[in-house]
Specification:
The protein has six helices and eight strands; from the N terminus they run H-H-E-E-H-E-H-E-E-E-E-H-E-H. By secondary structure, it is of the alpha+beta class.
Length: 207
């Protein structure tokens, strides 16, 4: 029942279209950030705020506007991801990311995927404890980077250009947006979907 709740909520998560890949690596990050800016310096765009819902003890955060989600994600506080008005504190935050239409070559090998996930952890200021990745034949890589603050995991489908990624962490020392930036730069998705799940909400753990 809980799994169905999470999957159903994911349908409302943000989709972020990405422009055609460029061969100039130095411009990748700037290109990604540009996706979430206004069309011009003088344009005025009203963004829809991320929404918080609760169901059976789960707090889920979704946003139909990718620009608003990106802006919100970049404003972390001492608890990690920022809390919405009326939301209970939690022990951890679980950011589920789906990457579509990636560069398939970046998803094929244990070495490439493992290096990307470790870099995402390091850039987000997480404390890496251990990592393990496995390359399947003919396709796909699964693996995890264990961090002191919890874990980052991934499974890839290179033949579909798709990757499923979970960034689970606690505390305010992890800057998760920097991990997302690394994933975008390395895997080059053309579309994304986000869902935030709060883990260990205060009423549940103190109940």
């Amino acid at each position: 029942m809980i799994l169905l709740t999470i999957v159903g909520a994911a349908a409302f998560a943000a989709f972020a279209p990405v422009s055609a890949p460029t061969r100039v690596r130095s411009s990748l990050l700037a290109r990604f950030k540009g996706l979430f800016s206004t069309p011009s310096a003088t344009a005025s765009v009203a963004y829809a705020e991320p929404k918080t819902t609760s169901d059976a003890g789960w707090t889920l955060i979704h946003c139909e506007d990718p620009a608003a989600f990106r802006e919100w994600l970049g404003h972390e506080d001492e608890e990690g991801l920022p809390y919405r008005p009326g939301e209970y504190p939690s022990l951890g935050s679980h950011l589920l990311i789906e990457l579509f239409d990636c560069d398939g070559d970046t998803l094929k090998t244990e070495t490439c995927v493992g290096d990307t996930m470790r870099s995402a952890a390091v850039e987000s200021k997480a404390t890496v404890v251990e990592q393990s990745f496995h390359e399947f034949k003919p396709y796909g890589v699964s693996g995890a980077v264990i961090i002191q603050e919890s874990h980052y995991t991934i499974h890839t489908w290179p033949e579909h250009g798709y990757a499923a990624i979970d960034l689970f962490y606690c505390g305010g020392t992890v800057h998760v947006q920097k991990a997302v930036d690394v994933l975008i730069e390395r895997f080059k998705p053309k579309r994304m979907k986000f869902l935030v799940v709060r883990r260990g909400s205060q009423p549940e753990v103190e109940g």
